[in-house]
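Lay summary. Proteins are chains of building blocks that fold into shapes, and those shapes determine what they do. In this project we predict the shape from the chain. Here is one chain we studied, written as its sequence of building blocks.
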Amino acid sequence: MDFDDTVDTLDLFSTDSKDIALDPRPVFDESPFVMDEPEVAPYFRSPHGAVYGEDCNLFLQNIKDEVVDTIFADPPFNLKKEYGKNSNDNLPPDEYISWCKSWIKEAARTLKPGGAFFLYNIPKWNVILGAYMAEELGLEFRHWIAVDLKVGLPIRNRLYPAHYSLLYYTKGRPKTFRKVRTPIATCRHCGGDIKDYGGHRKAMNPKGVNLTDIWTDIPPVRHQKYKSDKRKANALSSKLLDRVVEISTEPGDLVIDPFGGSGTTFAVCEAKHRKWLGTDIDFAPVIKHRLQNDLYLHQNTDVLDLD
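And here is the predicted shape, written in a compact code that computers can read:
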């Protein structure tokens, strides 16, 4: 089912019509966050957010200045993968970088002072884009988070690629940073601690260890229940978005994602009571279906430490 085949006049405003009868919860009002006379309308509204079926730049151009608390972006990596009929993942490198800079600049405009910008990509591109974010846009570098790559192929005459890059920038000093702890690692066979922590194990915080900038515990999305047969591309684990949202936002804050994909960002925001806005040029119907049914969230044993 292609996007263009599923959109009709009624469905563009589905939460104003048949979905109200199916779901009695109030739907999201995007008007405080979009331009006074927006050029685009949501494809679907949920209780906490709205998804559009538009190009990322057009979507971002319709967001007001400095209203967003956190941006998460997981664009196509330009690796010749097949997405939908409206996407091209095989651009010349200079065109790909230019395109990325255009939507990154537009997204940064929407970010509040102190807001967070997370950019998920392969290191090859994030080296260039991270420099642009700092040098041209004046965003403040926080972290290069290495997300362990569970399945990869060796590349001739290169080191084995073993991580994705998750850049974490803020617009000035971060207005929100919440400490996340992960469980103390134990041996799956004997149950004992894997590390001795320099002999200071008894002094460790019982809530766990501070989250580091190397994430080795993000599960790949393999089970079909986390995917849609209408979308063949990979999906992100909700555990990754869980961390992004918990680190950088409070309940009620606004998160935007200009590459909605399978809808993982929006599903996490729904579960954690964050407002959200996003778009996907090909898969808005897939996102709508997920949000109207089981959100399919991965188990997460992280602990939020607000003490």
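What the prediction tells us: The chain has one domain: 3-170+215-301.
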